[in-house]
Amino acid sequence: MKRIILIFLCSIGLSANAQVKTLTLKDALVYALENKADAKKARLQVENSEYKIQEVRSRALPQISANGNLTHNPIIQTTVIDGAGFGQPGTTIQAAFGQKWTSNAGVSLTQTIFDQSVFTGLRAARSTREFYQINDQLTEEQVIERVANNYYSVYVQKERLVLLDSNYVNTTKVRDIVKGQFDNGLAKKIDLDRIIVKMSNIDTERQQIKNQITLQENALKFYMGMPIETIIDMPKEEFEVVPAALTEVPNVENRTEYLLLKKQEELLVYNKKAVEAGYYPTLSLTAGYNYIGQGPQMPWFAKPSDGVYWSDYSAIGLNLHVPIFTGFGTRAKVRQADVEIRSLQEDMKDTKLSLDLDYRNAMADIDNNLVTIKNQKENMQLATEILSNTKNNYLQGLASLTDLLDAENAQLEAQNNFTRAVLNYKIAEVALIKSKGELKTLIK
Predict the structure, then answer these.
(1) Distance, CA of 299 to CA of 293 (rounded, Å)
(2) C-alpha angle with apex 57: 54 to 62, nearest 5 degrees?
(3) Please, are residues 356 and 252 in contact by the beta-carbon 8 Å criterion?
(4) What is the mean pLDDT of residues 277-298?
(5) Rounded Cα distance, 313 and 64, in Å
(6) What angle do CA 49, 279, 118 make, to 5 degrees?
(7) 86-106, pLDDT tens digit by residue?
(8) How far apart are CA 362 and CA 356, in angstroms?
(9) pLDDT tens figures, 291-311
(10) Would you say 254 and 306 are in contact if contact means Cβ atoms under 8 Å apart?
(11) Within its chain, how far is the Cα of 99 from the centroid?
């Protein structure tokens, strides 16, 4: 008894926590853009592009470093010199130069004065930021398209379940009528069995649809970045058919997909210029200041009285590097970069054709689906009238059970065809909006 009470209380707790979230298409899209990993990662790439700009900019700024070392020479290298320099002509002197201990500390500075690759890198870094901004926009559009299509798919399955539930209720009423007739000897057992079989088939299909709804809802939540355990509800008005506005052919060069390729082309041009920078000389400034201590013992904290002496020295210089011949390596790299640009330009031409094709196909799908919806709506209304008349005739003994079952099947099929036609239209509508580059209007 206690176990039953505990299970009951847990069930109440779960029901209280499982709140239903009403989800319009706009709500689903906004939620996905804020929570889906793809959208978050695209925004992080935009943020990361700022750090890449800072990294490239650092190459044009002074590079300052401190260094130090401590060296012990157990055996000092000797050098053989002519003794004439020491008043001993005709002799050779083997002398050791240096001390047992040496310590050095200093600061060095390097400043680029001219380096074509650095200047090109700075311009390319700014284009990289713009590239990731466009990529972020494209990712958002892909998220919107994916979520919208899955949203409508879930809705259609729920509509199919509503139709099956209604059909199950109607068939149950027919079964009760046939059972009453059978009990009174006015109907055959085979007629009752046929109704029962049909009800079983409808119930089986209902269970299959429920499973499909669960799977597609889970997929929708995944594409949104929403916890799978969330219970969602979709308002009825989300599935209304409003004829799309068919405007003039959009300029595909304004599509995000094309703009991304255009920016990629710009980056490849900068890459080619960076390679060509290998032909240019480079000039840099170097400066350093050092302090050195030498003696027979470790110089740290030692004094001249210990034989350790400290002194400082510094140097300032200009470094010029002029490339003369690189074995045609730079030329080969430049030509490779040029091939990459020309290859991308071919992709851009193909993308323009593909985007134009998407628009043309979306328009054709819209037109065809509007006609299909009109026909299926009329067909559904006619099937409903036929079913109503057949049911009346059956009750009056003017129609057979077979006629009634056929009419019910025809009505259910007409309803399903209408629902599928609406789904096809909504998916085509999303494709049309995408082809016009206006997917963001779905969240306004």
Answers:
(1) 6
(2) 120
(3) yes
(4) 92
(5) 17
(6) 25
(7) 777 878 888 888 888 999 999
(8) 10
(9) 999 988 888 888 888 888 999
(10) no
(11) 64
Cα separation, 188 vs 181, whole angstroms: 8
Q: Residue 441, class by beta-carbon neighbours within 10 Å (0-12 exposed, 13-18 middle, 19+ buried)?
A: exposed
- Structural domains of the chain sorted by starting position, each given as residue range(s) with its CATH number in brackets: 21-59+115-281+328-443 (1.20.1600.10)
Buried-state track 424-436, b at ≥16 Cβ within 10 A, e below 16: bbbbbbbbbbbbb
Average pLDDT, the chain: 87
The conformational region for residue 301 under phi > 0 = left, psi -120 to 50 = alpha, else beta, is left
- Residue 432 scores a pLDDT above 60: yes
Spacing of C-alpha 274 from chain mean position: 29
Quick check: helix, strand or coil at residue 205?
helix
* pLDDT surpassing 60 at residue 198: yes
Distances, alpha carbon 285 to alpha carbons 54, 58, 59, 320, in Å: 22, 16, 13, 9
Name the residue among 269, 429, 412 with its Cα closest to residue 365.
Answer: 429
Q: Please give the model's pTM, rounded to 2 decimal places.
A: 0.79
Q: Which of 247, 214, 245 is nearest to 231 (CA)?
A: 214
All residues at 6 or more sequence positions from 265 whose CB lies less than 8 Å from its CB, including other chains: 341, 344, 345, 348
Supply the DSSP symbol for 85.
G
Please give the C-alpha separations between residue 45 and each of 87, 127, 140, 167, 377, in angstroms, as whole numbers: 74, 13, 13, 52, 48
**Tokens (6 digits) for 395:** 């009750």
Which of 160, 218, 152 is CA-nearest to residue 442? 152
Question: What is d(CA 290, CA 316) in angstroms, rounded to the nearest whole number?
Answer: 12
| Beta carbons of 288 and 315 less than 8 angstroms apart | yes
Distance CA(434)–CA(296), nearest Å, equals 80
CB atoms near residue 234 (< 10 Å): 21
Calculate what percentage of the chain has a pLDDT beyond 70: 93
The pLDDT tens digits for 327-356 are 888 899 999 999 999 999 999 999 999 999
Percent of residues in the chain assigned helix, strand, coil, to nearest 5: 65, 15, 20
| pLDDT at residue 16 is higher than 50 | no
Q: How far apart are CA 142 and CA 146, in angstroms?
A: 6
In sequence order, which residues have a C-beta less than 8 Å from that of residue 73 and are 6 or more positions away?
A: 98, 99, 100, 101, 102
> Which residue type, as a one-letter code, is found at position 396?
Q
